[in-house]
Design brief:
This protein is an alpha+beta fold. It has nine helices and 27 strands.
């Protein structure tokens, strides 16, 4: 949902580069119908699209900056045809084995709630643009810029619409982006967004993304890495045998509903209480996307659009306390999702309520005498590694002779501790996990600016060699 900003920045950088590099040289613009571009992209890059071949897939999902958080899962799928496949999902909160064989379905669930963030990744991997028909109906074109060296820019389109109730409506957006090769780069709308990276060939006609990324909320980046993708030359029929089909009323169902439906189910809940703000608009609109479990509890709430971003956490915290009447479909309770819009009206906090500087981050006073050498230092001095934990070489990777370099991006904070560790590239997920575990224990002499410790982004490489 927040990945849109990253996509916008990427497109802007492409155009700026063209403006500085291509001055006085021939630059071509090509426009194609959106529907044609989308159809070609899905035909080339969808695992279950028109050019699909039987496959066996394993995917590892994790939060890039906190791999051990509950934002993690293992997904495995055996796919023979659109009418014959088997999928397993294993996460801390929810587990599922789903088998489809013709008109028979077997579904075994463990856990009372199928997280929305996890549903988004399943959609991104197997049905990357679920509302493709709606995009195809738009009478619009996308334009790509071709540089003199043959490289092409990304191409994006966006539509705006209203979300909310009859009383309160706010703007919402749906976005679709293609990379220079015409493959999907990003798709997003309320409740679902996904980035597609690291395409490589699969079979004779397909280019499949090997990394998927979703940012459901500020500070949360979830990544799905394809750790195995192989063709099933002769799918084993026993994988798809169903001895006892699961009746529809016992299957997990998730539906999107209107704000009016949520408001009816939320009667008796306290309205959102808007506190005084320290800056920004005091009146305006704010929208959130929520997911409700079968008992009526709001389990997830993500920001969509706000005239004051400082109120998003306030709205989320209060929405997560809501207890609604269960929402039913065909007489049975179901999970439900909805985009909600609110009007806020508050005031600026008085000066006495303004947050005070934390002593740990306050700038040292000019007359400090605790460290004369530091006080007199000027300019930038880069820090250095002072303590290094050697990563463990995973036994499974060693036995399989998996080796190579794991590249990580880290932020070294002002105390010399690595934070916000993100994988840039890696030959294997087990090696990635081991590298991240080791690097979190590294310690640095922090970098200094004008004598004061500062945080610094850096890239580290961890090399695994199998003797």
């Amino acid at each position: 949902m927040l990945a849109l900003e990253n996509v916008r920045r990427g497109v802007a950088l492409t155009l700026i580069f063209c403006g500085s590099f291509c001055h006085g040289q021939k630059v071509e613009e090509t426009s194609v119908a959106l529907g044609d571009a989308l159809s070609r992209a899905l035909a080339k890059s969808s695992l279950t699209g028109p050019n699909a071949v039987p496959f066996h897939l394993k995917v590892h999902l994790f939060e890039s900056t906190n791999p051990q958080s509950d934002y993690r899962a293992e997904v495995e799928e055996y796919w023979a045809t659109p009418q014959q496949w088997r999928r397993s999902i294993d996460s801390p909160e929810f587990k599922q084995t789903l088998v489809v064989n013709g008109d028979q379905i077997s579904e075994q669930d463990k856990g009372d709630y199928y997280p929305l963030w996890l549903q988004s990744f399943i959609t991104g991997i197997f049905d990357p643009v679920p509302n493709a028909d709606q995009w195809n109906k738009l009478n619009t074109k996308i334009t790509q810029v071709t540089l003199p060296n043959g490289l092409r820019s990304d191409a994006c389109t966006r539509i705006k619409f209203k979300i909310g109730s009859d009383a309160v409506q706010n703007d919402a957006f749906a976005n679709l982006c293609f990379d220079g090769n015409g493959l999907l780069k990003f798709t997003g709308s309320p409740g679902y967004s996904m980035e597609f990276h690291d395409y490589s060939r699969f079979g004779k006609k397909l280019m499949i993304a090997r990394r998927y990324q979703g940012d459901p909320e500020p500070g949360t980046e979830i990544v799905a890495n394809v750790v195995l993708l192989e063709e099933l030359k002769k799918p084993d029929p026993s994988l798809f045998v169903i001895t006892q089909p699961t009746p529809p009323e016992r299957r997990n169902a998730s539906v999107e509903v209107s704000q009016n439906t949520i408001e009816q189910a939320a009667q008796g809940q306290a309205p959102i209480n808007w506190p005084a703000v320290h800056s920004g608009n005091t009146t305006g609109l704010l929208s959130m996307y929520i997911s409700v479990d079968r008992e009526g509890r709001v389990r997830e709430a993500y920001p969509l659009n706000s005239d004051n971003a400082g109120l998003q956490d306030v709205a989320r915290d209060q929405l997560l306390k809501w207890r609604l009447k269960p929402i039913a479909l065909g007489g049975r309770p179901v999970q439900a999702q909805a985009a909600l819009s609110f009007h806020f009206d508050t005031a600026l906090a008085s000066s006495s309520e303004q947050p005070k500087k934390d002593a740990s981050t306050a700038t040292a006073p000019p007359n400090t005498t605790t460290s004369p050498a530091v006080a007199q230092a000027t300019g930038f001095v880069k820090g250095s590694l002072v303590s290094q934990t050697i990563p463990n070489y995973p036994d499974e990777a060693r036995k399989k002779h998996i080796q190579g370099k794991v590249v990580l991006e880290i932020t070294i904070d002002a105390s010399g501790v690595p934070r916000d560790i993100r994988m840039v590239s890696s030959p294997d997920q087990a090696l990635t996990d081991s590298a991240i575990e080791a690097v979190t224990q590294w310690r640095y002499e922090p970098s200094r600016l004008n004598g004061l410790p500062v945080s610094l982004k850096s890239t580290v490489e961890v090399n695994f060699q199998n003797p």
